[in-house]
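Box 4.2: Ligand-aware structure prediction
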Amino acid sequence: MSLLSVTDLSLGFAGDRSFAHVLDGVNLSIGPGQIMGVVGESGCGKTTLARAILGVLPAHSTRIRGGGISFRGVDMLSPGASADLRGRAVTFVPQDPFSSLNPLFRIGDQIMDLMKFKSPRRKAGPVRFPLFAPYPRRRRKADRARLMEVLEQVQLPQPDRLLKKFPHEVSGGQRQRLMIAMALLPEPDLIIADEPTTALDVTIQAQILGLLRRLANDNGVAVMLTTHDLGSAYEICDAITVMYAGQDVEAAPIDEFFARPAHPYTNALLASLPSEDGSVSGIPGTVPSLTDAPAGCRFHPRCERATAECRTVRPGVTGDPDRHGVRCYHPVQPLGAAA
Ligand SMILES: Nc1ncnc2c1ncn2[C@@H]1O[C@H](COP(=O)(O)OP(=O)(O)OP(=O)(O)O)[C@@H](O)[C@H]1O
């Protein structure tokens, strides 16, 4: 059974004179405890998808055109229904940890402020006057004790000293470990990690990815990891969904994905990984503008296998969507009957 189901989600952003149709019929399913990699080039809509699930898209410009997001059976596009889940059952690890911490306050104070409202020991429900809400002493003590445990879990040394520091006094890797700790503290079922290692150097990237994998296993929490790097996804994910220009094109468990990549875009992406002799080859053509996206399969202008139908109607899912699904009329390898 799915923990999170994104079904045929289409949405975009209205500008002064144009409309960016960013997500076009996106499907994604994440099971309890599963690590799902959402992989795609810059601008393909990974962050937009993450923000849609978290319910933090800009209200004034976002237009939902169809589809839905269901988390534990709750409609996440309905602000009333999903408010209690955000930041508690679903939490977030950002791309840039520095911009998520206030430079003027000590780290410990910021985390305890978060715990005041997001602690799993706090009763769910709206707070009328958050500034004046009390933080009962017993709960505060329990939350602080749990914070110390979690800081140990994310391998941050001397947590007492660390909590007294300001954000600029700790390294980028330590800040990202803090972000992961903050995402774990509410005891969520799903963590959305949006390119969590982009701002870090390569050795620290590997440590952070390894940490996420271990914590997901130990805590039984599912992770949606957005990344442009298939290598990172390979390191820690159970399954991968590939996106291209706002469309999901292929999804499969990790072994199946690398053994039988079926969509021409996935194959092009794999072929563009650096080879053993160090050579790299790109994908010919450019990613389309989402204000004027091509009809049908959005990859067709760059696809050698494209035919007339690819240019008009987006293909449905071929194969078993629970095992290995591909949205292509001419997959590189056949996957069985259309769903
Ligand atoms: N609030 C917004 N208003 C208008 N356009 C937006 C908005 N947010 C995102 N976009 C556009 O949506 C497209 C997808 O952006 P998004 O950040 O989701 O991609 P991404 O795959 O996460 O890219 P990256 O890996 O570079 O973060 C881009 O063309 C971006 O300019």
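In the box above, the bound molecule is adenosine-5'-triphosphate. Residues 13, 20, 22, 40, 42-48, 58, 61, 228, 290 surround adenosine-5'-triphosphate (CB under 6 Å).
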